[in-house]
Amino acid sequence: MVEKHVFPGARQENPLNPAELLELSKTLNKSSGGIAFTATAHTSFSEIKFAVKPTSGVGFSMQLNSCLKNLETALSQMGIPKEMVCQQSIYSMATPQELEATCARHFFGSTPPTSYIAEPPIGGFGLSCEHLVLMPRGGGIGIKRRQVTLEAGSNFEETIIENNNARITKTAVEHEKYGMAKYTVVEGKNEKFKRIYAAGLSGGTEDIEDSARGAFELQKMILEKEGMDFIHILCQRNFIEDIDGENYHAFNGVRRIFYGNAFTPGHLHNDWPAATGIGQDGNGVVITFIAEQSGKRRVCVDNPGQTRSDSYAGEFQATQAVTKKTGMQVGMPISHVGAGKPVNRPAFSRALILAASDPSSVDAGDVLGELFISGTASITGKKEGGRHIPYSPKDFTPQYVNICELEKIVGNDKLKQCGLKIHEYGGKIFAETAVEAQTLDLINNIARLISPENLEGHNINGYARFDDLKRLWVYVKNPQDEGKVQQLCGKIFGETPITYVKADVCYSDLLVEIGGSGAIRKKDKD
Q1: Tally of CB atoms within 10 A around 278
Q2: What is the pTM of this model?
């Protein structure tokens, strides 16, 4: 059963103000009936982020049916129509074709933008879902669902959902069909902004480079159709088949081509969006992203303990074949001609903040901006540039891990309550295994990233606690490590909704990666 909460929202005349929604989100941040969720307030609408697990079902379709029924029950109790689902991801080893009919049935043939990700969830069932739901506040926004394709010529019906005095109406309008990827557009009526939620962008599964090129071409078309460019992307998750092989290199090459014109030196927005590149066991390349055009301040955040992705030292292809953790060969040995050629560097910021254009209008302690955290791993910078994995499983011995930044943000008492073995002088936690060390190190990296000192260095007078993280994705490489990672994250992050999946990380020595989103609060003036 999903707990019933009184949730004044889309069907009531007096929607919640941000302060009321913040208080309610503390109540809503519970797990019940396979559902965990949090709410984030914007000026004219709110986002509710759901992580949903099945509570019954044997096969993939039955488990998806269970997830969608649980979601539908929760939305009904909140007074939110299911048309307000603007973006969703489904994690399983089923093919998209196996799941599309179930989705279409639940959404009456109008499935929201959906990414089908070939990553098995951790714990119990073989499928899990996440859904991003919009709750308009007053009559301040219009919501449209659209789609694009690499071919043009036919027509499609565009569902337009208008919020007029908190009443939902729908109309169908004929448009030129661009469409193989769906997306949702939210546009302010009184507040000048436009936001895109897109999912399921892919160029097929036959060739990874073609798949990536098709996905980015669709992304470009969506952005251009809405009057935007790549500089307006806030966050992007890139799911890449067999990422441990040459595929990550191919993907990064395509990304560089499409980003090239938008992110040129000296451009007003010359930094990358927040992004995560993670493996999947099929489906080629699949992209999910959020973009916004508004008067808000876009701040790309570096981590002082990690080298910028576009400043990595040159890496080179090896001559040996790449194998997965199962021993299965992913890629053939690179030919002698290919050996030694430089590998394309990734392109992302460690985090991105969309901050209020006028910070003076925000009171101390209130939300100053949205926070998007890129996929973060146990990688540190070296003086000569590049990447260094300090806790490689190849030569790991049990040891203390530096968690000074984590200790600042969580507190020594809280860490002790978690049952972690803290050094007598503080600042370090003992790790028995490489995966525990990497998990602690990457969480410490996140703590450093969102620390007041680091934000101040980016002209943000703010801070974030782990309680301000609204959504987390945890990717674990090896099945035998799942329990250890879940235990650590559960203790440290508390009730933050977390999706755990088994997936390869972009480098062979990395065992775990975490990305997420949340809020930055305004700091008291000194």
Answers
A1: 22
A2: 0.85
Closest to 122 measured CA to CA, from 457, 377, 484: 484
Distance CA 134, CA 116 (A): 21
pLDDT tens series, the chain, 526 aa: 222 222 233 333 344 444 554 555 455 444 456 888 888 888 888 899 999 999 998 899 999 999 999 999 888 888 889 989 999 999 999 999 999 999 999 998 889 999 999 999 998 899 999 999 998 877 678 899 998 877 643 333 444 444 434 344 444 333 333 337 999 999 988 788 999 999 999 988 778 998 999 999 999 999 999 999 999 999 999 999 998 778 888 999 899 888 876 776 555 445 789 999 999 999 999 999 999 999 999 999 999 888 777 666 555 444 444 444 444 443 433 344 444 455 677 788 999 999 999 999 999 999 999 999 999 998 876 544 456 788 999 889 999 999 999 999 988 888 888 888 898 888 999 999 999 999 999 999 999 999 999 999 999 999 999 999 999 999 999 999 999 999 999 999 988 889 999 999 988 889 999 999 999 999 986 4
State how far the Cα of 151 lies from the Cα of 307, in Å rounded to an integer.
Answer: 40
Structure tokens at 330: 């992913």
If you search the block for the tokens 């066991």, which residue do you land on? 281
Rounded distance, CA 322 to CA 332, Å?
7
- How many angstroms separate the CA atoms of 200 and 108, rounded? 19
